[in-house]
Design goal:
By secondary structure, the protein is of the alpha/beta class. It contains 27 helices and 23 strands. The longest helix has 18 residues.
């Protein structure tokens, strides 16, 4: 079976590599036929300068030409059978499979090499890739495709059976895509949307597209590659935004959390988990303890420092900070020792313990309980403790396997939050359930910036009128909260020591913390070492009485430590002085006197614009020069023509401005090149931020191999088991079971404003779902009928749009249709008829939890667990009686 990638450290003498040889992957040089460690891998990035590039050289500067394949007789010693996992035969009630075995043996050319631990077979990644796809390369063996009509995985004929797309159409599209790429030097592009990433095995979908583009030479070519038009875009000038957003000018490191893991734990969706690890584990998994629940995997990832956790410790971190300081020990040593001894406990091990509940939540610019929160009804039941529509039983009630690492409480808590505050300029579903809704300004009542990585311009939001009535801009609201908090803080809080645990981060030296096997200190397999085998530990000073003053001034760390991003750093003293002149300085006595003011929203925007390389040419040049210290190549020429350009807020008010090229992004903005992901990797020879430094098509982390995803493979949808427990509810009534899909809005403005009067007028005046004529007939439905759609997660009520354009077997509900306009009651739940996330639930994937492993290391808005909902099925039936729930509440009944 394919195992991990070879490293320089596997060879006697470590190929002469002294700096991180365990992180330097190897190849065979065509000219010398010797094993070499080519420059560009992660081991060259950290600890030595000037060798992290994609020049065709080895670590000693000698020219090399890397051999991609050992298919020629002279290049391999033997041809052996290699086992590859196959998942397309797994039973599913609603998706087509094939009868191939779950382990496919393929013939692969191999070579024998002498390693420290003895003689072994090795193969190139390309040869494994070809074998995995079932290409006939003259080596014989089973499950090899002789032509496109062969039924072996992954031929067009096989794909037709799985997908229903005709094989001829697949062949035509593939040939035309590749022929165009060949004729235009890679100008074939795939534009993909969010829906692709809403399936449980979303990463396999994405990797399939990436493989296609790599094979056709499209990545990094202007006009080619991929464009991900999805809702999780990042903002362009992020290195200017981060210090402002997370107060990095005053305190480092910040405390952050990945939301999917947070809500999976604290809405208790893990208590209802029906997906067993055995259902997704590979038949070729290496030996190990894989028998655990999904919440256990998440907890292990948190414990090993792979993912963040919130809350982090069962003990108040301010108390831990005091104790750590009083101990005389380094905070990291104090925490590691206390965790090992059991004196401190990680909160993630018992999310239902009252001490570990999240208590206060501020929702800003997000409709968490409407468009965002998968598992809406679980949010209502367990996080808010209000009326809900959860229909399923938890693992205890069903007598199913409970978690091994996480403590089980026979009765789940209902209502963990004490306070829910929402800032939303419209009365969204989240506002309906909030304790406090703060009246915030809308688009034309405030000054702000609007950017994303999908377009190259910085756009303004400009206040055309003052905010009406009592509403304020987001900036003024948070400034007001900070002011009042600072006034009351001295009653209980002063200058405090806060103990912060930070996961091992991508684009830092810590990303090469765990090179080979997976070792969990919680299982006694290794010692807890902060930043190595567990999270980093830091003591951060919090000056609560001066919070408002800090909020409204640029702190000293931008002068002392500078700024940076993606592993690069640069000094910002010149920019800080520029902000003093631009925004003015604080004149009042106190800790911020003489510092640059951040009083207004425009002041805040100017901080962002001044600090970001995308909007300040001087900073862009410094950022490219910082990258050059790693690559040993000159890159500043990419920004020098715009070194004197500084984009100010008034500039973009006059006209949106195009960004300046920055090493934070892998594309360029120039008169000759449109932004294209991977462009600088290809044309500037800057490594991809992977283990190999290349477009890495083989992912060798042990968890990736355990779940069969070392190479790109077909993964059928998972069975969420949410329909079968509810079939009795549909007995005796016409109904149909359909795949529930929630695309981006069709009858809304972008993704949210379905309840806009114009949109309601153009559509049906309330929530709607779409189905095919065939499925409607099965359920006895006609266009515009009210239907109840439900499963174990909950129920929703909507009008049905019957359309010949809909694919049989699917039900569409364009997402973000609010729960506040024209929604009748659900007979099943007795509550108002739900929302599109009432029938969904978050299900975590272990391979999204990996950390301390270069590209598979946690990063803010970069790598972590992701929610999915497209694998879900629902029961749809006609609503015989439409009840608008307008009568008086029955005794003891709760309003939804």
């Amino acid at each position: 079976m394919p195992e991990r990638l070879l490293r320089a450290s596997d060879f006697k003498g470590e190929l002469g590599e002294q700096n991180h040889p365990e992180w330097k992957t190897v190849a065979i040089d065509e000219a010398s036929d010797e094993v070499v460690a080519p420059s560009g891998s992660a081991g060259f990035r950290w600890g030595e300068k000037g060798k992290w590039n994609l020049e065709e050289k080895d670590g000693h500067g000698a020219d090399v030409k890397l051999r991609m394949t050992a298919i020629l007789d002279k290049d391999h010693d033997e041809v052996v059978d290699v086992a590859f996992p196959y998942f397309g035969n797994r039973e599913h009630d609603h998706f087509q499979g094939t009868d191939h075995p779950d382990v496919l043996l393929k013939r692969v050319p191999v070579r024998q090499l002498d390693l420290k631990e003895g003689r072994t077979f090795v193969a190139t990644v390309f040869d494994l890739l070809c074998a995995n796809y079932g290409l006939d390369r003259g080596l014989g063996g089973d499950f090899v495709a002789r032509d496109f009509s062969d039924s072996a995985p992954y031929t067009p004929a096989w794909a037709e059976k799985i997908t229903g797309v005709p094989a001829d159409a697949i062949i035509t599209a593939a040939r035309e895509f590749a022929a165009n790429a060949e004729a235009t030097n890679g100008k074939s592009m795939v534009i993909l949307g969010a829906g692709l990433n809403h399936w449980y095995h979303m990463d396999m979908n994405y990797r399939g597209i990436i493989n296609l583009l790599v094979m056709c030479g499209c990545v990094g070519q202007s006009g080619g590659g991929w464009s991900h038009y999805v809702g999780q875009e990042k903002l362009r000038p992020q290195t200017g935004w981060l210090p402002l957003a997370f107060a990095l000018d005053w305190n480092r490191p910040p405390r952050q959390m990945n939301s999917t893991s947070f809500f999976y734990a604290h809405t208790d969706q893990w208590r209802y988990e029906t997906l067993g690890v055995s259902e997704i584990l590979s038949p070729t998994a290496p030996k190990g303890d894989w028998d655990a629940s999904l919440i256990d995997y998440n907890v292990r990832a948190e414990r090993m420092g792979w993912l963040p956790s919130a809350p982090q410790l069962k003990t108040n971190p301010l108390e831990v900070g005091k104790a750590a300081k009083a101990s005389g020990m380094e905070p990291k040593d104090y925490v590691a020792q206390a965790l090992k001894a059991g004196d401190l406990e990680l909160s993630c091990l018992d999310p239902d313990d009252e001490a570990n509940w999240p208590r206060n939540m501020f929702v800003w610019r997000s409709n968490l309980l409407g468009s965002s929160g998968k598992g809406h009804e679980y949010f209502l039941k367990h996080l808010l403790g209000t009326a809900h529509g959860v229909q399923g039983k938890d693992l205890g009630e069903m007598g199913q396997q409970k978690p091994k690492d996480v403590k089980w409480h026979d009765e789940a808590p209902k209502g963990k939050l004490d306070l829910l505050v929402t800032l939303d300029f419209r009365m969204s579903t989240s506002c309906v359930y909030s304790d406090i809704v703060l009246p915030t300004a809308s688009w034309y009542e405030k000054d702000d910036l609007n950017t994303s990585d999908m377009h190259p311009f910085i756009h303004p939001l400009s206040a055309a009128v003052d905010p009406v009535w009592e509403s304020k801009s987001d900036w003024e609201i948070y400034k007001g909260i900070a002011k009042t908090f600072s006034e009351v803080a001295p009653e209980v809080l002063g200058v405090e020591q806060d103990l912060v645990m930070v996961p091992i981060q991508h684009d830092t030296p810590g990303e090469i913390a765990q090179p080979f096997d997976v070792a969990d200190w919680g299982e006694g397999q290794v010692e807890p070492i902060p930043g190595k085998t567990m999270a980093n530990v830091a003591l951060v000073e919090r000056d609560y009485p001066n919070l408002y003053k800090r909020f409204t001034a640029l702190g000293p760390l931008m002068d002392k430590l500078g700024n940076g991003g993606k592993g690069m750093s640069w000094q910002t003293g010149h920019e800080v002085e520029g902000l003093r002149k631009l925004n003015g300085t604080v004149t009042a006595d106190g800790p911020t006197k003489g510092m640059a003011r951040i009083d207004t929203a425009i002041d805040a925007a100017e901080v962002l614009l001044m600090l970001a390389p995308e909007t300040n040419g001087e900073v862009a040049v410094k950022a490219w020069e910082s990258l050059s210290t790693f690559t040993g190549r000159e890159h500043a020429h990419l920004a020098l023509p715009k070194e004197d350009e500084k984009i100010r807020f008034r500039d973009i008010q006059a006209q949106p401005r195009k960004i300046i090229s920055s090493p934070i992004w892998s594309g360029l903005e120039s008169e000759h090149v449109c932004y294209n992901a991977g462009y600088t990797n290809v044309h500037e020879l800057i490594p991809w931020r992977t283990l190999t430094g290349r477009q890495q098509l083989y992912q060798d982390h042990k968890w990736m191999r355990a779940f069969g995803e070392a190479l790109c493979v077909y993964r059928p949808p998972i069975d969420t088991k949410a329909v079968k427990p509810m079939l009795d509810q549909a007995a005796g009534q016409p109904h149909v079971i359909l795949n529930f899909i929630t695309p981006h809005q069709k009858w809304g403005i972008h993704s949210t404003y379905t309840d806009n009067q114009l949109m309601l007028t153009l559509s049906r005046g309330g929530p709607i779902v779409w189905m095919s004529e065939v499925d409607a007939a099965k359920a006895g439905l006609v266009d515009n009928d009210w239907v109840e759609t439900f499963n174990a997660n909950g129920a929703l009520v909507a009008r049905v749009v019957v359309s010949q354009r809909m694919k049989e077997g699917t039900l569409f509900m364009y997402h973000a249709q609010e729960k506040i306009v024209n929604v009748p009651g659900s007979p099943l739940t007795g509550q108002r008829g739900g929302i599109h996330n009432s029938v969904t639930r978050a299900i975590l994937k272990p391979t999204h939890m990996i950390g301390g492993y270069v590209q598979q290391a946690y990063g803010f808005n970069y790598y972590g667990t992701v929610g999915s909902n497209r694998d879900e099925y629902v029961i749809v039936r006609k609503l015989e009686k439409v009840d608008w729930l307008e009568g008086p509440l029955a005794a003891g009944e709760n309003a939804a």
